Amino acid sequence: MTAETPPEPEDLPMTADAPSPTLDETVGDHHAPVPEAHEPHLEPKVVFDVQDLNVFYGAFKAVRDVNLNIHQHEITAFIGPSGCGKSTVLRCFDRMNDLIESARVEGKVLYHGVDLYDARVDPVEVRKRIGMVFQKPNPFPKSIYDNIAFGPRLAGMKDDLDDRVEKALRQAALWDEVKDRLKKSAMGLSGGQQQRLCIARAIAVEPEVVLMDEPCSALDPIATARIEDLMQEIKSEYTILIVTHNMQQAARVSDRTAFFTTEVNPEGDHRTGVLVEYDSTDKMFSAPSDERTENYVTGRFG
Amino acid sequence: MPPASSVAERAPDPDVPVDASISLASTGGRRGDSIFRLVALAAGLLVLVVLAGIAFATTRQAWPAFSAEGIGFLTSSDWDPNNGKFGALAFIWGTLLSSAIALVIGVPISIGIALYTNEMAPRRLRRPVTYVIDLLAAIPSVVYGLWGVLVLAPNILPVYDSINSAVGDVPGLSWLFGGKASGRSFMTAGLILAIMIIPIVTSLSREVIATVPRSQREAAYGMGATRWEMIRSAVLPWSRGGIVGATMLGLGRAMGETIAVALVIGSNAQITTHLFSPGDSMAGVIANQWGESSGTYSAALIGLGVVLFAVTILVNVIARRVVRHFDERLKVA
Ligand SMILES: Nc1ncnc2c1ncn2[C@@H]1O[C@H](COP(=O)(O)OP(=O)(O)OP(=O)(O)O)[C@@H](O)[C@H]1O
Ligand SMILES: [Mg+2]
Hints:
A: Rossmann fold, 11 helices, disordered N terminus, B: mainly alpha, MetI-like fold, 2 strands, binds adenosine-5'-triphosphate, binds magnesium ion
């Protein structure tokens, strides 16, 4: 998990004492272009620049040669058949792969120019700025309030905690349902409510990026629709990456779509995930340039 | 279980029409269910019957002492067999105090070891550490007792003395660290007991910690928690009920321990909060005095056993309550 080249001097490690790109710096200057983000001539700011990313689990090469840019205040969808490495790539954006002992990452994931895999970068700091929502809702067995307050407390944001909790719950469209039972356990919520709670928990620290790995796969269509609405509402403040198996969902919510698939790798010993095509969602679903993409989005390929 | 085997042995009959064999198959399955339920119920009842039988038989044996002393058996600390006085309070006190010391020392260490082996130790260290801890459980308790009396007691006395002289005059602490220190004492017994309960508490804690779902750990790490913050916010809350249960089992073990405590507690029946003073315990007294007892004296010793039994069951019931309370509050709402 080390960078291959020594970091350039201007690359700042993201430790508490060395300042790195802050939310304020990145949010402020791009509020205006947001509504027109689809316009190709108004390329929004790049948040992540992934360069030659290869991920291994032990000797198994799970994905290879991924290059893509993630743009600010956009929703980027990762689609592709099961096992093609969508989750694996997503987890590189907040160094969650560090938790898997066998996982190894090559290449660069530049976050505002800072390589997340630089030896000086503290993964804990990375995860404070980049939130994650998982496939299965995973609230803590604590009260609703304490779940939302978890991140702010970790980050030392002790002031106005009540307001922060309320704001996050409102953003996640959950406030009205839970405002009378904030002190009750979060485990008593329904699956869809729990997932919105997890989203609220992730955005309570106002991260710049929210990563979502199939956030709706355990939910019914109504709960799914609420979460999709919620994504649209918060995208003016956040950059969202979502893995989904639901093609309509990708088409509905995302600005850009990346299609991954697996193919026999050059060494020929197993199948490895590759990024086939990455473009605006409109183009990906109406006029993809790669035949494999077309087959997949039209359902001709499993 | 004859009915079960007859169900299993029934081979499908090729002449039976398909419909009939289908209906036979499903009744067989249901019958298996009800047989299992009966066997489980019988086993459960058997345990209850055995427990009740033991309680009844020992209480009957102890009756002469109970009826002679009345409630004084529990409330008096006057234990003078030669004059027919059997007040067990000092022994009850000794059992509770030494066990409490064992928990206060042993449980944090056990949780620490469990967290270390499950969460922090490099993979190749986990097995050896686990193995060594489990080995502690294989040491016979008399060996612990002998080690305590021959090695620990004489060597730890100076430590007791210096603690007593250092903090014995401090207002909030003098009630614990006063009086004349003795190598064989509540504290020494508590220390030995702590070592003895560490294996069981550690291994049970390790098991519950291992059941903390990966999703919980990821939730905490995903929010930017450090390892310690993850343990505090995901691992410990999730396993709190199980750890309380493990602690209570350790407490049961500590209260019932006989020979090791008999050797190191000092055999001096007194009620004091001074940790470094000698005391005596219920199980210890039974072991030490059984041989020389007869008549009401024997009955009184058996009575101690009954009280110990009752206290242990009480602790278990409370433990169950506590565990359920935590589980309900945390997991279901
Ligand atoms: N912890 C792991 N250890 C070993 N191999 C893994 C691990 N996680 C994933 N893999 C392998 O890496 C490849 C990519 O997995 P990944 O989970 O990223 O796929 P995915 O595209 O998210 O699939 P799905 O749509 O089913 O979630 C798969 O072949 C998978 O078996
Ligand atoms: Mg996945």
